[in-house]
Amino acid sequence: MIESVEKLHARQDSAREAFYPDKIRIGVGLGTCGLANGGGDVLNSIREEVEKQGLDFVVHGTGCVGFCEMEPLVDVLAPGLPRVFYHHMSPDKARELVASLADGDFRGDLALMRFDHDELLTSVERPLTGKLNGLANVSTLEQTPFYKSQMKIAIRNCGFVDPHNIEEYLATGGYSALAKTLTAMQPEEIIDCIEQSGLRGRGGGGFATGRKWRACRKAEGYPKYVLCNGDEGDPGAFMDRSIMEGNPHAVLEGMVIGAYAIGSNHGYIYVRLEYPLAINNLRVAIRQAEELGLLGENIMGTNFSFKVQISRGAGAFVCGESTALMASIEGFSGEPRAKHIHTSEKGLFGKPTNLNNVETWANVPVIIEKGADWFAGIGNESSKGTKVFSLVGKINNTGLVEVPMGTTLREIIFNIGGGVPGGRKFKAVQTGGPSGGCLPESQLDLPVDFEKLTEAGSMMGSGGMIVMDDRTCVVEVARYFTDFLRKESCGKCTACREGVLRMYEILEKITCGKASPQDVELLEEICVYVRDNSICGLGKSAPNPTLSTLKYFRDEYMAHVTGHKCPAGVCKALTTFEIDPEKCKACGLCAKACPTGAISGGKKKVPAKIDQDKCVKCGLCREVCKFEAVATT
Amino acid sequence: MDLVKVDNIIDNYDGEKSWLIMILQDVQEAYNYLPAEALQRVAEKLGVGLGQLYNVATFYSSFSLTERGRHVIRVCDGTACHLRGSDNLRDEITRQLGIEEGQTTPDKMFTFETVACLGACALAPVMTIDSKYYGKLTPNKVKAALDTCKA
Predict the structure, then answer these.
(1) How far is B30 from chain A (nearest CA, A)?
(2) Is A393 in Cβ contact with B80 (below 8 Å)?
(3) Which residues of A touch B19 (CB under 8 A)?
(4) Which among A37, A69, A464 is the nearest to B79, CB-wise?
């Protein structure tokens, strides 16, 4: 049990010694991305090899360091040397690495990058005293385009600490902020600090966190509830998953600080069912924090108590909305209500409630530790601090990226993300999930913050950033999002229930080439109606994908409507695939990829040919062709 | 039908009706779906009307009122997967198993579902069979994964 600040510091010191042992320590990324890529097998093979050779190495699992494209990732830390990351590991490669390490060879040839300074990430100073030898040519953090302009606050420890071992969080200074608030700060002071930092809700709304806390503190009624929104329903966003999986204590510490400031003794973390690993890691973290007296009764020996429970979602996007989420925790279907009365006054079980998103909570301990001014110094005028984006879609460096607010889309997509794969042309970036919009090339120099994205017709949302190339049809993308929203609409208000359905029907008609220009006008009209008349955020923002694509890509809509063509070659009803015999090199790749056996030839110098009766227009032949021989008409 | 498991699950939550959704999840885990008898028992023990129970069980997409297959295939239809061809995976499953999304094969081997997003976008397009993830899929790889399950 940690019953005082002194005891916490002593525990942190001993934890730090174990975290930086005087021997080699190997970490394996075991977030969902890592595991799905075979990280578990890599960990097992490392353990086996270490045991077989009788090596005195420490081996542990970590979360996700954010560079998903490179998984499975392994990091090696030796006394006095940089932390070295190895990418695309397989069990065989991992065994080979362990054998080399045993001989003192750090295998710069297998390395992806090296981090010379841990304080950038874990606030622990670690002087380099050893000889770099084969690692001298491995690119440093500052030389790795994916990382050099990133700044990690919310995902600071992910990929470095073992989420199943609270000692590792303590080693990085974890729970110091909680100690500071409980022993040296008044609740009002904490709220002042968060307010001055300029922290705004990372779940999408961008509401000032400090103001939210103050309203709940002032509200009358007891008990008060503190909630964490881990529903992360936006398809294409996974930063909250990564934090819950890789650094769950950051969320817990933030919540306890918030609860103390607000005057709450009971909290819930609402996590979507699709994140089983996050649920499990949070459970382990809660248990370990309780065992050490950092959660539960009389936290750190003070008279403040706070209990946290996990509530699992059951597959409903609308439950990311605050009032729907609360209804779901209460055991009802997740239907939002109109917020004439704020949830800070009457929320969960009719009591004052404060809800923040995972990423917001994870920022809190750092703000307390480093101060409001430090945080407010990051970012731009209106949006402070950093934001985590999940950079996915048609992008080279898929992964989680945390950058200061105000960083341009171009910087994120082209410098950090490495641009569009296969030399294809960038077409649009979709931000904000189904509630957001598509921004074209002309908007690439837009600084990313809450206001600028909204002004451009999109929104920050929870931070999904989906990159599209010239083989993406934006009309089809609008249809996809609207289809998603029509299924997820809870059906309570007519504007959303009927309006989004009508929007979907028209979009479907357009992608089938059966729409008229009047349909497009009607579509716009319905969009405005749905936006202005829906009860909750889902309906109000549901027209964004359609309105933003209409704004920036109207020509593409008209090509479908008047030309009966899909310029990107995606909409099946409007596209025919053909192979140009002049360009075809008869390599046979397309025939192998074709799922219906529609392609004949393609070998012995006979050009491939598509049987149109069998073709299902999946486009795989075009995707695999290295000679641009597959054309669409 | 043996309803002891239902009773135990409810006891795990101290019979507290605000945990209804978690209770139903555990019941589904135990019985593979939500059998009518089990729902009846939950309603009685928690003092919740069957109407509300039905409302909840049909509102959330993860609940199933019909028996599911031995293996549950879930194809991710998140945005990243959609852009990278999740449609093609779904078509391949339909071609291989002869069932559409939401259906179970007559031999009760497979249930085919789609899911909004698994949050494993770097592996797009992705699907899970039971708890195993399959990433960067093509129709050919889907067929291979299904064949492994059938074997």
Answers:
(1) 16
(2) yes
(3) 331
(4) A464
DSSP H helices in A235-357: 239-246, 248-262, 276-291, 322-329
To test the contact with chain B by mutation, choose from A33, A271, A275 the residue with the greatest count of B C-beta atoms within 10 A, namely A33
Q: Report the relative pairing of strands A25-29 and A74-77 from DSSP bridges.
A: antiparallel
CA dist A96 and A157 (Å) reads: 28
- Distance (Å, whole) CA A196 – CA A210: 8
Q: Which member of A275, A481, A592 has the closest CB to residue B119? A: A275
Query: Tokens representing B42?
Result: 């939950």
Q: Which residues pair with A632 in a beta bridge?
A: A577
CB of B26 less than 8 A from some CB of A: no
Classify residue A17 as exposed, middle or buried by CB count within 10 Å of its CB (0-12, 13-18, 19+).
exposed
Best of B13, B17, B82 to mutate (most A CBs within 10 Å, chain A): B82
B59: nearest CB among A312, A334, A593: A334
CB atoms near residue A283 (< 10 Å) = 14
Instruction: State which residue of chain A sits closest to B52, comparing Cα positions.
Output: A332
Report the complex ipTM.
Answer: 0.95
How far apart CA A392 and CA A308 sit, in angstroms, is: 33
Residues 61-80 of B with CB under 8 A from A: 61-63, 77-80
- Tell me whether residues B117 and A68 touch, CB distance under 8 A: no
A43 residue type, one letter:
L
Residues 6+ apart with CB under 8 A from A486: A500, A501, A503, A504
Q: Provide the phi-psi class of A263: left if phi over 0, else alpha when psi is between -120 and 50, else beta.
A: left
The structure tokens listed for B29 are: 């885990």
| Chain A residues lying within 8 Å of B126, measured CB to CB | 36
Distances (CA, A) of A573 to A157, A206, A506, A564, A576: 48, 41, 15, 9, 8
Query: What are the percentages of helix, strand and coil residues in chain B, rounded to 5?
Result: 50, 15, 35
Contact A333, B56 (CB under 8 A): yes
Nearest CA to B13 out of B25, B22, B3 is that of B22
Distances (CA, A) of A83 to A66, A117, A145, A365: 16, 8, 17, 25
Strand order in the sheet with A83-86: A58-62, A25-29, A74-77, A83-86, A111-115
All residues at 6 or more sequence positions from A350 whose CB lies less than 8 Å from its CB, including other chains: none
**Separate counts of helices (H) and strands (E) for chain A:** 26, 18
* Tens digit of pLDDT at every position of chain B (151 positions): 899 999 999 999 999 999 999 999 999 999 999 999 999 999 999 999 999 999 999 999 999 999 999 999 999 999 999 999 999 999 999 999 999 999 999 999 999 999 988 888 888 999 999 989 999 999 999 999 999 988 8
CA distance B13 to chain A (A): 12
Q: What's the gap in Å between the CA of B52 and the closest CA on chain A?
A: 8
* Alpha carbon distances (Å) from A189 to A171, A184, A192, A257, A368: 27, 10, 5, 12, 10
- Taking residue A367's Cβ as centre, other Cβ atoms within 10 Å add up to 27
AA identity, residue B11:
D
Nearest CB to B122: which of A71, A329, A619? Answer: A71
Q: What is the pLDDT of residues A434-469, one digit of tens each?
A: 889 999 999 999 999 999 999 998 999 889 999 999
Between chains, do A37 and B21 touch, taking CB under 8 Å as contact? no
d(CA A66, CA A49): 27
pTM of the model: 0.95
